[in-house]
Amino acid sequence: MRPFMFYVARQIAVSGSTIYDDNNTVRQHWDWFWDAWQTFRAFFRLMTGLWAVGLISEFLVRVALLKSLDDVDDVIYYSNLYMFVVLATLGTLTIASTLLLRHLYNNEQSKIKNNERHSEIDRIIQAAAAENQQQEGSSGGLS
């Protein structure tokens, strides 16, 4: 079972995708990320936990305000103020951590590409060295 925020984010990605006409392609990419990348899974578990803590704290503050304040208008005012602070904080945290996750993914992909390039360069150098040795060995026998 996947965290709630995974499904929310995937639905946003599916509905906002202009690159793919087929929504299943986007879902398959998200499923692949979930299966292949541990940081991706940890990110969505953490985000779901943070939103749960924030929303539960909002509920608890509302209950405490109801019990402690006599004026209903004050309860509404302070509970709405706290709700705004909680949602602004959680929204900012979500956006910032999403940007961080994207940065981490891009760095990981860059490392993979650099390793592939280096291994390709090493392979070319080894092939050239082997070819030079072979040419030196065949020309040395002719003298």
TL;DR?
This protein has 143 residues and is mainly α. It contains 4 helices and no strands. It comes from Absidia glauca.
The overall pLDDT, averaged over residues, is: 87
Gyration radius (Cα, Å) is: 28 Å
Structural domain count: 2
Instruction: Tell me the fraction of residues in β-strands, as a range.
Output: under 5%
- The low-confidence parts are none
Structure description:
The longest helix is centred in the C-terminal third of the chain and has 71 residues. Helix content is 90%, strand content 0%. The protein is an all-alpha fold and 143 residues long. It has two domains: 36 residues, no CATH class; 101 residues. Helix 3 runs antiparallel to helix 4.
Feature tags:
mainly alpha, 4 helices, 2 domains, 143 residues
Give the SSE layout.
Layout: H1 4-16, H2 23-36, H3 38-68, H4 72-142
Helix pairs in contact: 1-2, 3-4
